[in-house]
């Protein structure tokens, strides 16, 4: 059975993939993963977080799915595991430009005061409505969100050998952060095939297009859809 390790967007939690555990069974074991985050005054690079993810992975018949920041961390974890002789079966990258582009993005949101930082993330669509409306929830989300933006905004992409596994890349059709031309550049990062798809929704298609994503994941991993679905 293939194990699909799922990584979250900035500020997200593995609970966001809880429904996938049932929805993608049988034939696929979904394991939501929390990437390591900097905290307590310590610094951490995105590559170090990815190495922490790689240490959590069982390397027999596995694949990665990552959304936004999670896609870049999954890519870097796949690099580590490939260099160690245990490449993933496939990398699914959702809502993310290629790593060199993500590395070159503007890098100042993490430096804003708390209120301004949260307001800007909310404007970009990176906070659930319930969090925006509740001061206590905003306070709970803030440390993880700021830690993740620190990982993203200090990411220093390093050139290296391409992956040896195929890549499936997704974007929501109305995603303002990733255009189709940029999504197609994922082919630059593998020696194998790349499949590019647009799905309904914006930057968070996991909320609105999970059925499309699940069908694509099964297809690309050659796992039949159960007859009752």
From TrEMBL:
Listed GO biological process terms: lipid biosynthetic process
Domain (Thioesterase) ranges: 3-207
Domain of life where this protein originates: Bacteria
Pfam families: Thioesterase
Family of this protein: Belongs to the thioesterase family.
Matches recorded under PANTHER family: S-ACYL FATTY ACID SYNTHASE THIOESTERASE, MEDIUM CHAIN, THIOESTERASE
Protein name: Thioesterase
Organism: Amycolatopsis rubida
């Amino acid at each position: 059975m293939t194990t699909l390790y799922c990584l979250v967007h900035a500020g997200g939690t593995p609970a966001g993939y809880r429904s996938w555990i049932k929805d993608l069974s049988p034939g696929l074991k979904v394991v939501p993963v929390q990437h390591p985050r900097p905290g307590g005054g310590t610094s951490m690079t995105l590559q170090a977080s990815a190495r922490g993810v790689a240490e959590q992975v069982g390397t027999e018949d596995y694949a990665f799915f990552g959304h936004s920041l999670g896609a870049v961390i999954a890519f870097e974890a796949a690099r580590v595991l490939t260099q160690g002789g245990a490449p993933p079966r496939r990398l699914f990258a959702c809502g993310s430009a290629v790593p060199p582009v993500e590395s070159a993005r503007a890098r100042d949101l993490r430096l804003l005061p708390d209120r301004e930082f949260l307001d800007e993330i909310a404007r970009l669509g990176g906070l659930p409505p319930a969090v925006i409306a509740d001061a206590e929830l905003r306070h709970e989300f803030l440390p993880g969100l700021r830690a993740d933006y620190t990982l993203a905004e200090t990411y220093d992409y390093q050139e290296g050998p391409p992956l040896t596994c195929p890549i499936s890349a997704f974007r929501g059709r109305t995603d303002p952060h990733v255009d189709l031309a940029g999504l197609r550049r994922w082919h630059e990062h593998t020696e194998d095939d790349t499949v590019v798809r647009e799905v309904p929704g914006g930057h968070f298609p996991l909320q609105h297009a999970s059925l499309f994503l699940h069908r694509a994941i099964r297809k690309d991993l050659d796992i039949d859809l159960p007859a009752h679905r």
